[in-house]
């Protein structure tokens, strides 16, 4: 019972809103019928049909009948009006069914394909419905035969404009009401709303007597809205501008031909804004997906560093555990046993800290900055490559002539250094035996930064490769994803440093990082 009462009030509200929109847009009607420059009520009907299904046809039919009586004073006999209203409901319902089948109706125009497909369905569907409706008017002898073409074009344009301009706004209201509410409370929305009012005054107040030569200024608010708020901002701005245009048409009492020309321009204006909004939303969505992909790829790159980091505490835990067993067998219950247990606990905390830092990086990309000894960092990062250098006949030298500490996340910097060293090994692989050299060195860049250089005897970089080296998904390896250097640069920049490649006759990468405590000293 409660559900029926709720549905009754919902459909009553729909009928009232539909008729109110019909009344507000009943301007320059042709022969007293609903052939007007703008038909926003149709957009409301389509959105309700997409949301509530085919049952919308019943209240929609009554809304059309009520509009013919209340708004237009029943311009045709009642049976003819019923037939015409039924035809419109069938045509509009067919448009809704096609949209439901081919367009993603849960999200409001999520991509360019959906936008163009939606527009094509609207244009073709309204043309078919308009043709059938005007044909019935001619059959019932309600309009002169000679005006059939004009009536068709005006009815078709009015329906298209009503849907293109208004449907995204109603769609957002039904599907993403909270998003619309949040945007309406932002200063930007008030800003482009005010700009829209000013541009409308300029276009109509100053340009009304000069064939609206300033109409192009109306692009400013809708482009601003779309660029900053995506499809939602474009929908709001398009609705506001269209309402302003129709108010100006009524206020200036423009002739029907001029009104239709303005409506065509308004439709183009709305489509441009919607297209920009869709592109902006797509860009933001792809950027978010790419950030997540990079984070997951970085986690893969960090797996080696994690294994290395956990190896030491786990090995120590095993050693201390065996030591505890031996001490217990010897009957030791004093300080030696307690000291061994304390060391086990310390190593377990160390292992847990490594896992926690990796988990934090997975979730938020966070870094834990601390003072890290430069020599220890380079020794830890290069240790896994010593055996590899012997196996591949590579001369790997490490020249650390500085005693200093970096302000860094050691786990993440090891990922960067190991990635650079791995690339260096790949670069020298094609060189003859005895000429495969990799040199790791460091020097002071200035009083605040240290520079780590990784040089190899490989062929070096060409200008084209150097320009795209740090772009994501750019790789010279057949099995590579092209994410290693992109991730490395992102990690280094998160540390306040810089990673670059020099164009020389051999491979040279420079990693600049801040020294520990220098920022505090400077402050």
Q: How does the SSE layout of this entry go?
A:
Elements: H1 2-24, H2 40-52, H3 57-70, H4 78-102, H5 112-139, H6 148-175, H7 177-184, H8 187-206, H9 219-252, H10 256-329, H11 335-364, E1 370-373, H12 374-382, H13 386-391, E2 395-399, E3 405-408, H14 410-428, E4 437-444, E5 449-456, H15 463-468, H16 484-494, E6 498-501, E7 507-514, H17 518-522
Helix pairs in contact: 1-2, 1-3, 2-4, 2-6, 3-4, 4-5, 5-6, 6-7, 6-9, 6-10, 8-9, 9-10, 10-11, 10-14, 10-16, 12-14, 14-16
Description of the structure:
With 523 residues, the protein is of the alpha+beta class. The protein folds into three domains: 1-167, Orthogonal Bundle (Arp2/3 complex 21 kDa subunit ARPC3), CATH 1.10.1760; 302-367; 371-522, 2-Layer Sandwich (Heat Shock Protein 90). The protein is 67% helix and 8% strand. The chain has helices spanning 2-24, 40-52, 57-70, 78-102, 112-139, 148-175, 177-184, 187-206, 219-252, 256-329, 335-364, 374-382, 386-391, 410-428, 463-468, 484-494, 518-522; strands spanning 370-373, 395-399, 405-408, 437-444, 449-456, 498-501, 507-514. α1 crosses α3 (57-70), α2 crosses α6 (148-175) and α14 packs antiparallel against α16. The longest helix has 74 residues, at 256-329. The model is unreliable at 519-523 (pLDDT under 50).
